[in-house]
Amino acid sequence: MIRTFQQHRLRQCQLLDGLWDFVFDKDNMGLTEEWHTNFPSNPDRIPVPACWNNELGKYDYEGVAWYRTWVTLDDSSHLRLLFHAVMGHADVYWDGQHLGYHYGGFTPFDFTIPNVTAGVHELVVRTDSTLGHNTLPYHIVDWFHYGGIIRPVEIQCLSDVWIEGMRITYDMTGDSSADVRVLLKLRSMSDAPVEVPVSLYRNDEIFLNDNAYLPAKGSMELVVEQAWSDLQRWEPEDPALYMIRAVTGHDDRTDRIGFRTVETRNKKILLNGKELYLQGVNRHEEHPEWGFAFPNKLMNKELDIILQMGCNTVRGSHYPQSEYWLDLLDERGVLFWSEIPIWGAAFPASETDDPLFVERALTMMDEMIERDLHHPSILFWSVHNEIDTRSKQAYELSIKMTELVRSKDQSRLVAYATMHPMTDICLGLFDVIGINYYGGWYFGHVEFEEMLEVFHERCKEYGAEDTPVLMTEFGGAGVYGDSGWEPRLFSEDYQADILGKSLKLFRSDSKISGTYVWQFADTRAQLQSHLPHFRDRARSFNNKGLVNEYRKPKLAYRVVKGIYTGHNDPYDWGSTLK
Ligand code: ADA
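== Beta-glucuronidase ==
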């Protein structure tokens, strides 16, 4: 399942999960021209969705790979091919014809193919996971970037008129009332103009019955504006959700929304007018067995563990996470920080303004917002992480990114995470500032009062004295199972000690509105033998997880749980056997 609920009841949808033919194009020989003859007669087979780096013998491969499968149709139909996520560059071929290209990694893209005949069709995808100077992320990055078709490929049979998009926005006009606007984008594949009935439902109750007229092979937008009352707000402790369904003739689409407001005032974040204190963790959607192709079942368990720890928020470090995950957060009232993979610790300012990189960044941001606009759990759109925000290039990129976000969505806060809290020149551009600071780890000692003093002063200088501040990263590595009587570096004890002290300090600073521990689980690190970076990642993992890569708790998990839940009970060791 892509979502936790059914998005189409009338439109026929099928996931192309399974084993696909697969071949590495190690020398990038370009099977493009004559790939039919070049595709080996006895190719490897690999699961889709999956990351190839989790399969035997493919652990380290970065580069070009080809996938092939066959689709059988009983009847002729218009088709929509929907790729939920392919890493890096993707070229798609249908019966030997190039359908198009997409660059990205964590956001969906699609193609429509009119009048496909009944019978067997060939689908081929060329992927390229190579990172470089203008990719997202930049090629020097500490988290492992897997390759492959990481999320499902879906095939949808379209009727002559189909719903291409639905965008629901609202303004709260009172505690339980809102002005609601639904924009439906309809597209016709018919050779003649058509008229179709359109109905809209809220939780299966109809609120619009109309007709739409579409030109031959054209599209139209239908806008419906209504004042709604008796609404229940989406609150973390009671996350009320509303299903909105559109039906046009033979097509339909359901999405889900929640009503809430978010704003900032005097350094505080207010949800539905009430002040929030955020207690969170950073989460990579990654696992040693699945890479980024994270299974739904594990998302459920992960969220259970996170909630049991007393969290009310998660930061999706460092890329758009699965829609299924966001659905779970909506349903359980957990707030989310969503970002794109501009990961800058090693990204030189001089490369931040490369036009291709900027274009890719804006496109990915745009695609993320389009995909996730309706999730009430998302409070923050974050535009970059740890780039050189002391530089003019980072300042200019921040302006472009924040402008794009604000032009698309005003119902969320625009954020970023800085690693230069004392010298940053971008502080005044955002609704929320995140600080990544590893006192006790990279900076030797845990006392960061001085850093915070300088930072708060600097905020005044840059017109950000009222901007809320979150500690978006802090922590240290603790190798699972390494504990002792003394807090040695890399031991569970040392990690727990850093986190305990850091949290104490942040929670006593009234200018800080919340914390995201780095990080929830240990994650595979990107170590390149020819580069000097990240050599401190023991086991080729980032070991700063509160749980290890198999989600088993370390001492730090229990310490953070004690602080977040307010139960520092030594006998409450975090058992799930309640
Ligand atoms: C950075 C970065 C994280 C992680 C962390 C670390 O702050 O944003 O992705 O790499 O450092 O472990 O050093």
